[in-house]
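Proteins fold reproducibly. Look at a sample protein:
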Amino acid sequence: MVPGSDSPTKWIKDGGIEMEYISVREASLKWGISERRIQRLCLEERVAGAIRFSRVWMIPKDAEKPADARIREERMKKHE
């Protein structure tokens, strides 16, 4: 565990670079969307750097929540 952290840190060496990953559940809590939605976003390759091990997705800890594709840019400007 990382000092000051509630969950175990997952480190995966990728081409000599160590990256920190979180689970779908942790991303769900962080982004405020369902676990199933995050799995779908990963499958659609909309989460940068997400990797799959068997049936488990690992998401880079610093990954940004993908924009909602259902909202068009013009509509977003109206709500700002």
Summary: Confidence is low (pLDDT under 50) at residues 1-5. The radius of gyration is 15 Å. The beta strands are 10-14, 17-23, 51-53, 56-60.
